[in-house]
Specification:
The complex is a heterodimer of chains A (334) and B (210). Chain A is an alpha+beta fold and 334 residues long. Helices cover 19% and strands 25% of the residues of chain A. Chain A has a seven-stranded mixed barrel. Chain B folds into two domains: 65 residues, Gyrase A, domain 2; 130 residues, Beta Barrel (Cyclophilin). In chain B, β8 and β9 form a beta hairpin. Classes of the chains: A alpha+beta (334), B alpha+beta (210).
Amino acid sequence: MITILETAPLNTVQDLGRPGYRNLGVGSSGVMDPLALKIGNNLLGNRADDACIELQTYPFVIRFETPTSFAVTGIDAPITLDGSPVLAWSVETAAAGQILQVGIPKTGARGYVCVGGGIDVPVVLGSRSTQLRGSFGGVEGRFLEVGDQLVTQPAAEHLSGYGAVPPARVLDTAPSEEKTVMLRAIPGTDYTRFTTDSRERFWDQPWRITPQSNRVGYRLSGAPLALLEQVELRSYGIIPGIVQVPPAGEPIVQLADANTAGGYPRIATVIEADLWRLAQARIGTSIRFVECSHKAGVDAEQPINSYLDDLRLMMAHYRASSQSRNGAKPGGKA
Amino acid sequence: MMGTRAMLFEAPGEFTMQQQQRIWALIVHTENRPDIQELVPGVTNLLLIFTHAPEHPEQVADWLRKAWETLPPRQIDGRLFEVGVRYGGALGDDLAAVSAHTGLSPEEVIQLHQAGEYTVCAVGSAPGFGYLHGLDPRIATPRKSVPSLNMPAGTVTIGGMQAGISALTGPNGWNSIGYTEICLFDPHRSSPSLFAIGDRIRFYPESIEL
């Protein structure tokens, strides 16, 4: 059990999402950065569909009411357990009564508080994710509030002192001084309906993430894009990552909490393998779209899968050696 | 393709109910493919979301085109819902705008709205929202340039050539002409969405406030 001591709006319980109900108008929800949750769940030996707390506002403070193993992933931030620093992307086990504080991130935007066994809220339509528009899932379909108590699994063993290399360090090929976030995107159905000028500008110009950006979508700001002629599209199903251009000409990237259908012209779709980068790009950051083929988009999954495979392998070794250590020296030195 | 893992099939030409029935036929034909995670029917289109990115999307596209050419339209014998509406008043306060746009009196707008039988073409956008076909073209009214910020769930609306009942309270660009108390979506019901594709809807006035 954990108790929320301090939180601002926008923090919710999420898992990998709720696919399968778009035909009823129910969007996928789920974490904005699925890679960070997969890493957290891997480190803790959780199931893939275990839920976490997604942080978008800080500071966030909780008290562990029972011994609990945890890892904070997604961000690099000042994190403390009863005042002592804790590393991000690493596993620690808190004793009952200890207080975890997550401060404003130095890098990244969305933090994930993952706990051993996952956050146990009722499964609604196959998922624990909060569906804010539909007001269900998570904790009563709403943002977490001070005083909320969440059921967790008491830690069976004292896991501590190991972690994962932050994925950006492994997966980013661009030099780190490059402040612009590069997102690979595949041209969309209406790409050729835009003027040649607009098509070039879509790729060449840096787009700024405006404050009207959230889990529903990111609104971008830059020199507007123009269609060759106005089109009236019939409502069509959409997925996270689709980049639509409303009449004013500044694109929107639809994300986890987007509606299931839309009607604006679609210029491109950000590949799934890069959505976690967008989730961690803060308001005010510049992004650039990089044109990408279907094959390149599929191949882009490979480095992420190898990263996760390596992590799984490391965790298996770690557990095996920790068990043999414990078995060899019962009651030995800690 | 929409990204690497989704493909949108769009029917050519204008909207007709027959084109929509061919989309419905395509749903049944496509849902048995082992590579499908989700199918999202839209208005004369169908979004396929795959379990994994297809290696050769053009083969799937060819398969879809062939199915489209050969499948007969699918008639759905949907359920009939009779929905009581409180027309006008504060919860239907765009009735005057619809009346002004169409050049008809509010009474005539209501008369034409409740005379029609509507078909649920697709469910989507918000949980349980049905895209309704069957609006009398004489009362078609474009969406508002400035959306209402907090339109209650249950508002009976007109958006262009489509009719609707808002499923959730929130921002909405459609014109409100009345209000009904039916609950369109409950995640804890065995079938969470009240409406399914092919269902038919008739409106009748419970009250009129002009």
